[in-house]
Write a structure and sequence with these properties.
Number of domains: 1
CATH topology: Spore Coat Polysaccharide Biosynthesis Protein SpsA, Chain A
Distance between the termini: 49 Å
Strand order of the largest sheet: 3-2-1-4-6-5-7
Largest sheet: 7 strands, mixed
Order of helices and strands: EHHEHEHEHEEHEHH
Structural class: alpha/beta
Low-confidence stretches: none
CATH class: Alpha Beta
Length: 223
């Protein structure tokens, strides 16, 4: 019998924000309301954590900001995080916090593959594929359909320092991130493009890519 392969020597990093009504998914909340938007964000985070937990990697880290005690589905999120190393985000802006999260997750000297909580359709197979590609690449980058990106992997966590100069949440964030990485001399391997969830118009495409039994699919029915 052929032995099962061991875990992939990659750290998966999830950068997350506590899904607190009034603070989470504000563009979505403008249409569906603060509480519903936060509940959708909580569902997306939990589905993402499930996928990461099922991915055969050696380390799993969540960089969190916000007070989970005030979040939707707080108890469920707290229980799910028990299988992860949880660190606090630090920095003055989102780009700074992203770069610091990569650096803080690189205490184990291995590649770091970072995702957010806006793509609940990610699967363990997809993440494992990205992780394996990162073993043979200096960086991997997966673009989002809105012009941003949904996954960034670097073989050396300090390489993500170039993110500090990238304007985030803009229509050209993905292209600027790619240019910033390449400007530092890093060769970037592009991986699958995905839809992410920012507004109510994004929900149908993302839900269609999710399992019907997923929390995100269930909570967004009718939207």
């Amino acid at each position: 019998m052929t032995p099962s392969p061991g875990p992939i020597s990659v750290t998966i990093l999830v950068v997350a924000k506590a899904p607190i009504p009034g603070l989470a998914k504000t563009r979505l909340a403008a249409t569906v309301g603060d509480r519903a938007a936060a509940d959708i964000a909580a569902a997306a985070l939990l589905d993402t954590l499930d996928a990461v937990a099922a991915t055969p990697v050696t380390h799993r880290v969540v960089a969190m900001t916000g007070d989970l005690e005030q979040a939707c589905r707080a108890e469920e999120i707290h229980d799910r995080l028990a299988g992860f190393t949880v660190i606090a985000q630090r920095g003055d802006g989102f780009a700074d916090r992203l770069a610091n999260a990569h650096s803080d997750s690189a205490t184990v000297r291995q590649p770091v593959l970072q995702i957010g909580m806006d793509t609940p359709q990610v699967s363990a197979d997809l993440l494992a594929g990205c992780a394996r590609r990162l073993l043979d690449a200096e960086a991997v980058l997966g673009m989002a359909r809105d012009g941003g990106w949904w996954v960034l992997g670097v073989s050396d966590g300090t390489s993500a320092g170039c993110l500090r100069d990238v304007p985030m949440s803009q229509s050209d964030t993905g292209a600027v991130t790619l240019a910033a990485l390449e400007h530092t001399g890093i060769s970037v391997t592009l991986v699958e493009e995905l839809h992410d969830v920012d507004t109510v118009d994004d929900i149908p495409a993302v839900r269609a890519a999710c399992s019907p039994s997923s929390r995100f699919a269930q909570v967004t029915q009718g939207l």
